Give the backbone structure.
Amino acid sequence: MRVGTISRAPQQERAIGPSVSWLDRILAAATLISFVAALYLAFVYAPTEAVQGDVQRIFYFHVPIAWLAYLAFFVVFCGSIIYLWKRSEAWDIAARCSAELGVVFTTLVLITGSIWGRPTWGARWAWDARMTSTLILWSVYVVYLMLRAYSTDRQRGARYGAVLGIIGFADVPIVQMSITWWRTLHPAPVVSLEGSGSLPPEMLLALMVSLLAFTLFYVWMLRQRIQVEWLRAEIDAAREANERG
Amino acid sequence: MIQRADSAKPVPQDSDRPDDAGSPATPWAIDIAGLTRRYGATRALCQVDLAVPWDQRLGLFGPNGAGKTTLVRILATLVRPTTGTVVVGGLALPSQAAAVRCHVGYVGHQTFLYDELSVRENLQFYGRLYRIQNRAERITTLIERVGLADRADDRVRTLSRGLQQRAALARAVLHDPTILLLDEPDSGLDIDATSLISDLLVDELGRPRTVILTTHQVDVALRMVERVVVIARGAIVLDAPVNLTSASEVARAIRQSRITS
Amino acid sequence: MTPLVNQVGAILWKDLLSELRTRDLLGGMVLFGVLILLIFNFAFDLRIDNVAAVAPGVLWVAFSFAGMLGLARSFVQEKDRGAMDGLLSAPIDRGAIYLAKFLGNVIFMSVVEAVCLPVFTAFFNFGVVSVDVVAIALLGTCGFAAVGTLFSAMAANSRARDVLLPLLVFPISVPVVIAAVEATSSVFAESPLETRIRWLALLGAFDVLFGVLCFAIFDVVVEE
């Protein structure tokens, strides 16, 4: 068997390797450009915030990453539902890869939140509503990855993952609500991270561009991950077919 | 209700069975086409085709890991096929699996009995699940039939493996199924008990059931079945009537399949 | 509807009968709950002025950890004798298995709570037995058992099942724990009824939402 090609019907042969379709190139370029723009806008263009000073600039990354984390988990939710309905492996791969990215983003939210909190709150962690909810969200999806890792076979892992993907996401609003009520009952003596009032247009621009950058990054990265997983599935199938003779 | 396109034999009595949607009359008790079952990357069954007419007794042989248990579990509605069609008594799996369950009895590698309950209580439990009428009477008759009359009220935990297996057989035929799937039913049983298995191959009214029997005791099984099927590595390698097959042929088919692996 | 009730009744009765005959699970759960209360006594060195503040938390830690023991056993028992296959190959609604296990878990956890509440009162000299607390405990137990039963079916079929089950249950049941603890604490603090109503509503909503969702999705977990 030649290394480097998956042999199926002759017209379907193609090389294993990083996929470099035009869409991926455009996405990669767009991601890079928007990140450069976002960095400029966040660190140079946007005015310094009055109360917190320059440390507030982390807001331009912390907030978009948080939104992307929710988007990633929403994709897990939808992918899980569609997988259970259609039972096609492609949707399970999409859900799993999105969950991985979601965990990465959620970890970054927690880290950036802590970095922001240190000078602002005086502590590396405070049990404010949003950060606590994020911590719970993080643990749900880390457990998602563990559940899949501990499954006895891939199909069962896919099914169980889908179930947790649905239940976990359905729980998100309830967790938010319960933690917010808990916090209003026991208010922590800290300043809200985002501050009050609306954002001046320069800050809004920086925020939006940063959001665009991270969204493009998510889409591009998700595509790459899905392609790798897809290839892995194909290799397994080909190897197995080869053994059968 | 399973309809049989078989004018020679009467339709099985359904007075003690739950209602299910009517199914088209069919000459095949079991009709399998292109059945494949994958576990992750490995294929347990590969493009299996098998058609079993009503009342046929089929012996399923093959080396360990060949796919016999997987095939039987698919028919018992415990495992879904990955691809292919499986039709049991005119009802398609897995979409009509719930309807199929009333008509299938299954003995697997484990007894499905609860240790802390007695034999009688186990049968009463399953009797409730299968919605059997005249439960108490039926259970007593069945307990006597399998030779457990004196141990019926002892907890399953206290019974020997052989007696537990007898109770498992009783459980499988409790609802008088038309189709009986026996996966190594003789494991743990003593020699005398093989006559018990033969005895259970006919139903309460003396009519033969459709039977699929898996076992490693080839000689014994060949006396009980009408058709021999050998499975190896997920595919059927031999399928012949029993009068044209001998134990040595079955053994040869199994050995050959190992060599070609 | 009635066949479902019959099936649930049969399975639940079988579970209760099995448990009554061995008594190892229930005894273990109750003892574990009491031991946790004991450990908290040493951990906090509770004096009368502290007790009202920490009582709800202590109680719910005891309930949820002891409950976890029960959850872990509910499907492992079936798996060990292959009896789960016996249930799955029977002509029953698979949701009946979920409901029967759920009710069994609620009953076992309720027994633990019924013992722990008076024991707490005795250990810490602080009355916690009241209709309100019992009602909150029941609602919280139902929520905990609703997701716990589903997850225990998943964990029973996975590797590292003892580790996986708490990891699955605790993050998802955070709203239950928060609501139950806050509601119980508002009972002890004798706060206005509105606070309690709000938490009870949250508990009720969680119970209904996840009860229905887990019941519906249970088939997917046990199929193969």
Notes: The interface with chain C takes residues 18, 76-80, 98-99, 101-102, 104, 106, 108-117, 121, 125-126, 128-131, 155, 171 of chain B (CB under 8 Å). The helical segments of chain B are 68-75, 97-100, 119-129, 135-145, 161-173, 194-200, 218-222, 247-259.
